[in-house]
């Protein structure tokens, strides 16, 4: 009986997700193939209220976008920026470097693993190499998962 309630809840999560992204009935049916997407959507929906992904500027020198040490970029566990918790200007070259660490966090959460225990890409850099190497500036981010508080709730 408890298992049926768990399956009903899981189906509800999947149907809410499908409505949100606009899946057709056949796409919902196809979504169940492989079961990995079901597991990921379910577990990320459970983690969404508990965690946020935060990328903090730990090094900044001559950044054209004005990024400075201590600034943070806050994302939900799906990888969406929570814009009220991000700088007004965000450099595409810098934020594009977050795609791999966000995917690693997604994978860890969907497999019920400790979200901060990933080995690679804890730190990312913008691709600019700085003035010394014929570039312009350079910025480094530290990526980590933090517990959500009222300030990191998506609107």
Structural features:
155 residues, alpha+beta, 2 domains, four-stranded antiparallel beta sheet, 5 helices, elongated, disordered N terminus
Can you characterise this structure?
By secondary structure, the chain is α+β, with helices and mostly antiparallel strands. The chain folds into 2 domains: 46 residues, no CATH class; 98 residues, no CATH class. 35% of the residues lie in helices and 18% in strands. It has 5 helices and 4 strands. Strands 2-1-4-3 form a 4-stranded antiparallel beta sheet, covered by helices on one side. Helix 1 packs across helix 3. It is elongated. The N terminus is likely disordered.
Topology:
Elements: H1 2-21, H2 25-31, H3 36-47, E1 51-61, E2 72-75, H4 92-95, H5 99-110, E3 123-125, E4 138-147
Helix pairs in contact: 1-3, 3-5
- Alpha carbon gyration radius: 18 Å
Which percent bin holds the helix content?
25-40%
* H/E element sequence: HHHEEHHEE
Note the gap between the termini: 35 Å
Biggest beta sheet attributes: 4 strands, antiparallel
Low-confidence stretches: 1-5
**Overall average pLDDT:** 89
Number of discrete helical segments: 5
Q: Write down how many β-strands occur, each being a DSSP E stretch of 2 or more residues.
A: 4
């Amino acid at each position: 009986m408890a298992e049926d309630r768990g399956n009903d809840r899981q189906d509800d999560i999947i149907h809410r997700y499908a409505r949100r992204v606009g899946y057709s009935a056949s796409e919902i049916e196809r979504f169940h193939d492989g079961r990995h997407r079901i597991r990921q959507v379910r577990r990320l929906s459970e983690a969404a209220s508990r965690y946020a992904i935060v990328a903090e500027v730990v090094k900044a020198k001559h950044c054209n976008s004005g990024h400075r040490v201590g600034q943070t970029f806050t994302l939900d566990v799906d990888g969406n920026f929570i814009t009220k918790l991000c700088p007004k200007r965000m450099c595409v070259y810098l934020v594009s470097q977050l795609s791999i660490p966000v995917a690693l966090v997604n994978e860890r959460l969907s497999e019920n693993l400790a979200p901060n225990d990933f080995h690679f890409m804890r730190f990312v850099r913008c691709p600019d190499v700085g003035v010394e190497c014929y570039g312009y500036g350079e910025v480094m981010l530290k990526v980590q998962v933090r517990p959500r508080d009222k300030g990191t709730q998506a609107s």
